[in-house]
Amino acid sequence: MLEAVLNRIVPDDGNGAGAAELGLLEFIRARLSGPRAAAVAVYVAGLADVDRRTHERYGHGFADVCPAEQDDILSSIESEEAALPPWSRGAAFLETVLRDVREGMFGDPAYGGNRDGRGWDLLGYPDPRSVWTEADQRMDVVIIPLHPRLARPPRKVLP
Questions:
Q1: Contact 74, 11 (CB under 8 A)
Q2: CB burial readout 72-108, b (16+ within 10 A) else e
Q3: Are 8 and 14 in contact (CB under 8 A)?
Q4: What SS3 state is found at 60?
Q5: Pseudo-torsion of CA 153, 150, 146, 139, nearest 10°?
Q6: What's the longest Cα–Cα distance across the chain?
Q7: Residue 89 Cα distances to 24, 66, 84, 95, angstroms
Q8: 4, 129, 141, 149 - which has most CB atoms within 10 Å?
Q9: Torsion of CA 147, 149, 155, 156, to 10 degrees
């Protein structure tokens, strides 16, 4: 079910890598079994709530309804969580998932997400480097990745 939620947050829609291609499910599972173990309760309660709402509204589990119905459920939860006072947001389900998604999409691939730097591709970020020259920081340059494992066709950083 978490996989279905991640696929709606980061769909494989032709605009770049989706959740599966980025390795987000594996990244989050690894984090929840280690450094983010305290968030397991948030995930368990949140996923149970998502599934309950979907059953009530559509008569099926979240993973079994169409993408538009999944979006409807997630949007309703998002609008309710946005109305929470700031001090109670720390355990909000979608905020927790989105935090982990961002870390998995744009963090160093060595941590298990951002598979092959594909999240960086979405931003036009070539790869980490210790020094950015003045020429690299120009708006009209093409930055070539330094590392062969991240070698992809060069992209303009910003048009």
A1: no
A2: bbbeebbeebeeeeeeeeeebbbbbbeebbebbbbee
A3: no
A4: coil
A5: 50
A6: 58
A7: 23, 28, 6, 8
A8: 4
A9: -30
Alpha-carbon dihedral sign for residues 128, 134, 138, 142: negative
Q: What pTM did the predictor assign?
A: 0.79
Which tokens in the block code for residue 143? 């930055």
Residue type, 133: T
Say how far apart CA 50 and CA 93 lie, in whole Å.
10
Contact status, residue 109 vs residue 149, Cβ threshold 8 Å: no
Q: Which residue has the tokens 């020094």?
A: 131
Query: How many whole angstroms separate alpha carbon 157 and alpha carbon 143?
Result: 7
Q: Which residue has the tokens 């996989």?
A: 3
